[in-house]
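Researcher: I'd like a candidate sequence for this fold, 240 residues long. If you have to choose between options at a position, lean toward the conservative one.
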């Protein structure tokens, strides 16, 4: 086991979280959290926050980023909860590599969280409940093509983000939001026929009904600790 450190960065709609990880994905030292700037959030604002905060977490050899949108080849394709079109096609990985002088790998934030919790057997799915709704799918531990489920209609033209995100929770209250979560779980089960579903994100703790045995609420910390797994050889194909 090496003493290499990975800087994990979890970019969210309300906060940007940081931690240094060892090769087992354990947090080394004190993590950090910086509030996400008010919308619209410019890419340069996020890059500056990452550059400034990374210097407070000690030495690291590489950087893993979870981003709240669709990403491909180190570029952001969508950033629905950051409130500006400036993110479209933004080369976030290369910009961070230039500023931090370290190699950077980036995936969708729900995919990073899933890497921290999946068992590697069967069809496993992850949903994150936060500012919006994130999603990830794995088959026998392998990452499947990303579906931006949060932007898909779920009920009367409302997307998952609009129907189940933080704004809907605040507007409708916990009880009605939980009835919506029940409806969503039935839809996702029909859609994916998963073997196991993991629910994370800051609002997962607001679920107040008994979940089926194949559905598990997981720690939001996995959005950070899963970052070390972005560097496993089986994920090399996702990074040019």
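Model: Candidate sequence:
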């Amino acid at each position: 086991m090496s003493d290499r450190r990975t800087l994990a960065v979890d970019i969210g709609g309300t906060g940007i979280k940081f931690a240094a990880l060892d090769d087992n994905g354990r947090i080394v030292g004190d993590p950090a959290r910086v509030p996400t700037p008010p919308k619209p959030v410019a890419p340069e604002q996020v890059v500056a926050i990452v550059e400034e905060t990374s210097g407070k977490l000690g030495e690291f050899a590489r950087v893993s980023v979870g981003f709240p949108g669709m990403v491909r080849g180190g570029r952001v394709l969508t950033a629905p909860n950051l409130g500006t079109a400036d993110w479209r096609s933004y080369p976030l990985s290369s910009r961070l590599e230039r500023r931090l002088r370290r190699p950077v790998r980036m995936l969708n934030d729900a995919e990073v969280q899933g890497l921290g919790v999946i068992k590697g057997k069967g069809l496993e799915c992850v949903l994150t409940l936060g500012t919006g709704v994130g999603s990830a799918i794995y088959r026998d531990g392998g990452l499947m093509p990303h579906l931006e489920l949060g932007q898909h209609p779920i009920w009367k033209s409302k997307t998952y983000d609009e129907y189940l995100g933080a704004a809907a929770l605040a507007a409708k209250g916990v009880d009605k939001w939980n009835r919506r979560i029940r409806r969503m779980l039935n839809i996702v089960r029909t859609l994916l026929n998963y073997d196991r579903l993991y629910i994370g994100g800051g609002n997962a703790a607001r679920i107040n009904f008994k979940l089926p045995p194949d559905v598990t609420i997981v720690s939001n910390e996995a959005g950070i600790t899963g970052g070390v797994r972005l560097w496993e050889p089986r994920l090399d194909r996702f990074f040019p």
